[in-house]
Write a structure and sequence with these properties.
The complex is a heterodimer of chains A (about 190) and B (about 400). By secondary structure, chain A is an alpha/beta fold. Chain A has helices at about 1-5, 25-35, 45-55, 90-100, 110-115, 145-160, 175-194, and strands at about 10-15, 20-25, 80, 105-110, 135-140, 165, 170. Chain A contains seven helices and seven strands. Chain B has a domain at about 70-205 and about 225-355: Orthogonal Bundle (Cytochrome-c3 Hydrogenase, chain B). In chain B, about 45% of the residues lie in helices and about 15% in strands. Chain B has helices at about 70-75, 80-85, 95-110, 115-145, 145-170, 190-215, 215-220, 230-235, 240-245, 250-255, 275-300, 350-355, 360-365, 370-380, 385; strands at about 30-35, 45-50, 55-60, 175-180, 180, 320-325, 330-340, 345-350. In chain B, strands 1-2-3 form a three-stranded antiparallel beta sheet. In chain B, strands 6-7-8 form a three-stranded antiparallel beta sheet. In chain B, strands 4-5 form a two-stranded antiparallel sheet. In chain B, strand 7 (about 330-340) and strand 8 (about 345-350) form a beta hairpin. In chain B, helix 2 packs antiparallel against helix 3, helix 4 packs antiparallel against helix 5 (about 145-170) and helix 4 packs antiparallel against helix 14. The radius of gyration of chain B is 22 Å and the shape is globular. Classes of the chains: A alpha/beta (about 190), B alpha+beta (about 400). Chains A and B meet through helix 3 and helix 4 of A and helix 1, helix 5 and helix 15 of B.
């Protein structure tokens, strides 16, 4: 745990008199945990679901990103819309989305769920899942490769991690961490001497 | 919980969850399986009537993936329809391409070069193997074994997809078989790599048998469960491995050969009593047989062109035609009515899964709730094809 957090440079162990002190923000810590274990719902619609299953399987191995499918929406953070959304299915997807606890995220996988795809002029197809539920990430392709789905998960991780903006840390506490630590050290020294 | 900011429009709200079963007795219970359920292999909904643990009635509710392909076909030219056929049965897109192209070729009366016929057989059989690997993996998951999925789906199927990708650039939706032949010739050394794959698969199939076929827990869950007699199967119009598992020896590739199937020697595996285990075993043995065909085709792979003499923009003469192939799920037919224009007047698909699914309510009756998942898995349907 030490190495993972330290590499992000958002959690620093600092030697203070009488022990060690770890400074971070609760928001960061919660987001770090959240983005490292995105649990999608086991929910496949059409052809893209096969590529989604391939992403879970041995070669692409989603588990190493902390992405592990859950069979019920009550335990899921992420809804991957993998396939054509049909008018008959759209209300069921909305129900599933509403059953998921917050915060919840949606990846629209493939041309069909983005905009109707090859079925853009069909009478029965819902032209885009974003007409039904809000979408965080759109993946193009028919079907997208498993790598594309992994890229979408990386993009979602960046989105969840609110302290990161375009790859640059924009954590902005009122004072820089070093100054805060200095004050604590000074306070601790004073307390010891008193 | 914060309200959902975007509401579905009025168009989207139709009769959603109708109860398909009207009469429920005092001691009976209705159970809704799907449309979101890990073991329905897609968006099938089955309404079950239970008497304790025993199923007294099962009504499948389809249409959660109805994309209106047959209507769309009337607005697409023939080459554009091949693209749609990919997405009907997305586990065996090659066989779907093939069925559609066979029908159009019958209308156009085109000569297919021998090399193209051989390529069709190779990719068709490899795709059958890939499809049966998906079945092998997901059926294992249904019963409670996760490892077969990682072996068959994650490792071996990916190797087939690599071969397809090298050939036509796509992993799942190939659009490879075209009217008059195939899209591209095999790259250099491709048949050699296919043969290498076949060799690699031989010891792995032994591994498959150790993992699942001879697994005592798996055998207990499937042998004698979900019986479908030969008479019932024929009456219901069931085709493919499910029919052969009931002991009816009927395979279009052997009995009414299309393409180049006349040139190859292979057996048609048969089941004994038509239970879940037989349906599994027939598919498992079909992997061996398909690899045998692939091996023979690669060994005597002919030279020559891969595309017959077909115009880029063809207009088949007016008339109607029906052609079918024996896909991984059964007889996959394509019925086309042409009025002499570049678009079909009517395109009807005979999806094997849709007709095989009829057997579900017959098989499930009288079995326990836990057996439903095994029976659903053993039917191996693809919802894209069921709903079209």
């Amino acid at each position: 745990m030490k190495s993972a957090l330290d590499s992000l440079q958002l959690l620093r162990r600092h030697k203070v008199v009488g022990g060690e002190l770890v400074l971070t923000s609760v928001d960061f810590f919660v987001d770090w945990a959240r983005k490292s274990s995105i649990w999608p719902l086991t929910f496949g619609l059409a052809c893209c679901a096969i590529e989604m299953m391939a992403a879970y399987a041995s070669r692409y191995d989603f588990d190493r990103l902390g992405v592990f499918p859950r069979p019920t929406p009550r335990q899921a953070d992420l809804l991957i819309i993998s396939g054509t959304v049909v008018k008959k299915m759209a209300p069921a997807i909305e129900t599933l989305y509403n059953q998921m606890p917050e915060p919840r995220f949606v990846i629209s996988m493939g041309a069909c769920s983005n905009c109707g795809g090859p079925y853009y002029d069909s009478y029965s197809v819902c032209k885009g899942i974003d007409k039904v539920i809000p979408v965080d990430i759109y993946i193009p392709g028919c079907p997208p490769r498993p790598e594309a789905l992994q890229t979408a998960v990386f993009a979602l991780q960046k989105k969840i991690d609110r302290y990161w903006d375009a790859g640059k840390r924009v954590a902005n506490p009122s004072k820089p961490t070093n100054e805060v630590l200095k004050e604590i050290n000074v306070a601790a020294l004073k307390a010891r001497d008193a | 919980m914060a309200p959902n900011p975007i509401r579905p429009s009025a168009v989207l709200q139709g009769p959603v969850f109708e109860t398909k079963i009207e009469q429920v007795g005092d001691h009976e219970m209705l159970l809704n399986l799907g449309p979101q359920h890990p073991s329905t292999h897609g968006v099938l909904r089955v309404v079950l009537k239970l008497d304790g643990e025993v199923i007294t009635e099962a009504v499948p509710d389809m249409g959660y993936l109805h994309r209106g392909v047959e209507k769309l076909a009337e607005h697409r030219t023939y080459p554009m329809n091949i693209v749609l056929s990919d997405r009907n049965d997305y586990l065996s897109a090659m066989n779907n391409n093939w069925a559609f192209c066979l029908a159009v070729e019958k209308l156009l009366k085109v000569e297919i070069p021998l090399r193209a016929e051989y390529l069709r057989v190779i990719v068709g059989e490899l795709n059958r193997v890939a499809s049966h690997m998906v079945f092998y993996g997901t059926f294992g998951i249904d019963i409670g074994a996760f490892t077969p999925f990682l072996h068959a789906f994650g490792r071996d199927r990916e190797e087939i997809l690599d071969l397809f990708e090298e050939m036509c650039g796509a992993r799942i939706t190939y659009n490879y078989i075209r009217v008059g032949g195939v899209m591209l010739d095999a790259p250099e050394g491709w048949t050699h790599r296919v043969l290498q794959f076949v060799e690699r698969m031989k010891p792995r199939l032994v591994e498959y048998d150790k993992l699942l076929t001879k697994n005592p827990i798996f055998i207990d869950r499937t042998i004698g469960v979900g019986l479908l007699s030969a008479e019932q199967a024929v009456d219901l119009g069931v085709t493919g491995p499910i029919l052969r598992a009931s002991g009816v020896s009927l395979d279009l590739r052997r009995d009414h050969p299309y393409g180049a199937y006349n040139d190859f020697q292979f057996d048609v595996p048969l089941g004994k009593q038509g239970d879940c285990y037989d349906r599994f075993l027939v598919r498992r043995l079909e992997i061996t047989e398909s690899l045998k065909i692939v091996e023979q085709a690669c060994r005597k792979f002919p030279d020559g062109p891969v595309m017959g003499k077909v115009l880029k923009m063809y207009r088949p003469p007016a008339g109607e035609v029906y052609a079918q192939v024996d896909g991984p799920r059964g007889w996959l037919g394509s019925y086309i009515v042409s009025d002499g224009t570049e678009k079909p007047y009517r395109h009807h698909i005979r999806p094997p899964s849709f007709i095989n699914l009829q057997a579900l309510s017959e098989i499930v009756k009288g079995w326990k709730m836990a057996d439903v998942v095994a029976i659903l898995g053993s039917l191996d349907f693809v919802l894209g094809e069921v709903d079209r």
